[in-house]
Amino acid sequence: MQILDGQFVSQFIKDELKLETAQLVVEGKKVPHLAAVLVGNNGASETYVGAKVKTCTEIGFKSTLIRLEESISEYKLLTIIEQLNNDADVDGILVQLPLPKHISDEKVINAIHPSKDVDGFHPENTGRLVQGLPAFVPATPHGIMLLLEHYKIDTKGMHAVVVGRSNIVGRPMSILLSSNTNPGNCTVTICHSQTKNLNDFCRQGDIIVAALGKPEFVTGDMVKDGAIIIDVGITRVADASRKSGFALKGDVHFAEVAPKSSYITPVPKGVGPMTIAALMKNTFKACLDRNSNS
Ligand code: NDP
């Protein structure tokens, strides 16, 4: 069993981006600028946005954090996004989800200009991804592909079972793994809450991507020997022994599954850091595209 070390690989990618960003400065070119919008005071969202902004600073990107009251109107938020769309200095825009219930995720995502949609959630980018055209790929599935690529895992012909069909993780993951690419070229089964005999599907998986948000859902008996296990889940579970008051749990029962697997991502330090690295790669690409178009 080998750990797929997202912390290590993400650092490798960030170091590369740092060098490339320094080179932009040497050439007198614009450095990438990410604008992150955070609505309300959700603790987990604060942590995720904080980590993204900190990473920008580490690698030499410019970042702007726009904090907005929970009570902000949808109209006002859409106006702010329009301003960011029109700001020539901003390369990438991310709006941290979830948004308060009175604001439509869909309207907000659709308002971000596709060329600045570094989260890859806009329907134009989704459509391009489905058609195999250059696109901003959602950061979590993109990060998982970068991880598989780093470890030179040849997935051709494998049966991948993706548990979860959200637009930000499960569905794009299934598209990437089934693409005629490397990694990719898998036969993909996508499972969800209505899947019958889910355990049977999982047991057939050469690769299992668990992205459902149910702590330790995938147990040892659901996994075949030698499977590659990608654990996307991050759930905060109360833990009085920790200063924070919670522990992070993945969707995979690590102690049971790891001994049976060939490769496995831990939680934390697996998919999470890769998500941030992929977001940074997307932002760098957005900046290069803008530099070359200006
Ligand atoms: P969503 O809640 O949007 O989607 C969950 C998916 O899992 C749905 O498709 C749902 O099915 C399916 N599901 C729920 N319960 C079951 C079940 N019992 N059996 C089979 N399928 C089930 O979650 P996300 O995709 O946004 O996130 C999934 C997890 O990944 C969460 O823990 C989240 O925190 C984490 N995450 C981690 C990231 C990282 O960087 N590591 C980034 C993004 C997310 P249905 O469609 O039928 O409802």
Structure description:
By secondary structure, this protein is of the alpha/beta class. It folds into two domains: 28-114, Leucine Dehydrogenase, chain A, domain 1 (Rossmann fold); 139-272, Rossmann fold. The protein is 41% helix and 16% strand. Strands 1-11-8-7-5-6 form a six-stranded parallel beta sheet. The chain has a three-stranded parallel beta sheet with strand order 3-2-4, sandwiched between helices. Helix 1 (6-26) packs parallel to helix 10 (271-293), helix 2 crosses helix 10 and helix 6 packs across helix 7 (170-178). The longest helix is centred in the last third of the chain and has 23 residues, at 271-293. The chain is globular. The termini are far apart. The model has no long low-confidence stretch (mean pLDDT 97). It binds NADPH dihydro-nicotinamide-adenine-dinucleotide phosphate. NADPH dihydro-nicotinamide-adenine-dinucleotide phosphate binds next to helix 10.
